[in-house]
Amino acid sequence: MPDRIAVLLLLLGLAFAAPVAAATQTFGLAGDQAALAARSQAEWVRQAQALEKRGDWPGLLAWGQDWAQVDARNPLAWFVQGRALGEMGRHAEAIAAYRQNVRIAPGDVWARNNLGNAYRDSGRPREAMQAYRAAVEIDPDYTQAWHNLGLTFYLSKGQAGVTQALQKLQATDPALADVWRALAIEYSITRDARVAREAVRVLRGLSDAERARMFGILFAEG
């Protein structure tokens, strides 16, 4: 994981939203060109944290833009812009910001999760699921992206569509089909955290080949 993401890893807090709004990974870090350039990473982070805590999204956006102006290769500068733009409902611009973040730091699963949210909120569920899938393939322990993946899968296909996809998985791996049914249907309806925890525990333990086979069946067109 790039060093410049390490600060984010240490300080980010997980926040899980309601089924109709995918869980957003928060930034959660708790004029003059020369003056901007003199700021330390810690200063940029502290002010971003303060702006997010106040819900000052225009201010956070302006701060991220200033940050990118002096350090365009810092993925956090793009992350905070995406965070602000998403909260402001400017989803196309949020997608662009998070995509830039991911170009700089491909292993940034938090940006991939939020990119999925922006795609989903733009009415592009398949691209959202691809972003969440990329996050869990990079880090199978990233529970939040598993949650968002299951919720979006259910909300985009409906119970009938999910059931149809699960029938295909059932023929290959009945136990895994039951786990995915729990995450994509039962959890989405009941919001029982125990259901999600157990499903994600099993999914996290899959091998790369098992995950690839599962996703190939579940996300097949048609």
Automatic annotation (TrEMBL):
InterPro entries: TPR-like_helical_dom_sf (IPR011990), TPR_rpt (IPR019734), Ycf3/AcsC/BcsC/TPR_MFPF (IPR051685). Residues 1-22 form the signal peptide. Gene3D superfamilies: Tetratricopeptide repeat domain (1.25.40.10). PANTHER family: CELLULOSE SYNTHASE OPERON PROTEIN C (PTHR44943), TPR REPEAT-CONTAINING PROTEIN MJ0263 (PTHR44943:SF8). Keywords: Repeat, Signal, TPR repeat. It comes from the Bacteria. This is Uncharacterized protein. TPR repeats lie at residues 75-108, 109-142.
